[in-house]
Amino acid sequence: MRITSKHQQYVDLIQITDCHLEHDSLTTLASVNTNDSFLAVLDQVASETADAIFATGDIASGGSHEAYQRFITATNNLSSPVLWLPGNHDEPAIMSAHKPLIFEAEFNNWLVIQLDSKQQGQVGGRLGGEQLQRLQNTIAETEAEFILLFIHHHTLDIGCQWIDRQKLEDGASFWSVIDHPKVKAVICGHVHQASDIIHQGVRVISTPSTCIQFKANSDDFALIDLAPGYRRIRLHHTGQIETGVVRLDGNRFAADLNSSGY
User: Fold this and answer.
1) For the chain (length 262 residues), average pLDDT per consecutive 10?
2) Which domain holds residue 24?
3) Which residues of 194-217 are buried (b: 16+ CB within 10 A; e: fewer)?
4) Within-domain flag for 252
5) Alpha carbons within 13 A on the beta-carbon side of 206
6) What's the CA dihedral at 18, 22, 27, 32 to 10 degrees?
7) CATH of the domain at 112
8) How many independent structural domains does the chain possess?
9) Is this model's pTM higher than 0.70 or not?
10) How far is the C-alpha of 126 from the C-alpha of 132, rounded, in Å?
11) 207: in domain
């Protein structure tokens, strides 16, 4: 699909991720009401000017119809189109029944590609040969000058031993496929923390959750007292990328730091 940008010189995007909505609006995750934190993030996002919003997986903790319907009802109030992709906690078939999964969007001279790293019954991610071949073909054939990739799972170690065991299983094949000068960034969710590095000349970025945040550089599951957030992304017509994380003010969504899992 092609989305008309409000500006010729750049494209403004917003990423939200790892909402972990439950089947009802009252259930909490590590003492955080994920529905309330999600809606608070959306209230902040509503004040932004964006050409599109990308929700990069783990929309729902249990993949329920009720959770997806609440997500759609809430995001329908936003002025920007919202595209989503599945995470390991999601059920893609149920998602598709509520809203199509759109995996390519063109903005000015940029192509944004969403990848489905969900493995049924598995926590870790995998793209598989068919999707990797399709990605390789798209990169080779697109007329866009620059490419941005969204994916749920992280493609490189983040420095947390427990969650690095869940990263993209076919990451080496993925990085071989995207070894192309048009590819400028890979942005993920899943790790519930912010990071921004360069690998093979590509920006590799992760984004905080709209609910609980994982403690960086931890061997075992651990949370940190940081507020929910989202990411702003500006894609310049020159291929440069500006990006930064925005967090909610205050501590109204403080997590139980003694929680042993999620």
Assistant:
1) 90 98 92 96 95 97 93 94 96 94 96 96 94 97 97 97 96 97 98 97 98 95 96 98 96 86 77
2) 10-247
3) bebeeeeebbbbbbbbbbbbbbbe
4) no
5) 22
6) 10
7) 3.60.21.10
8) 1
9) yes
10) 10
11) yes
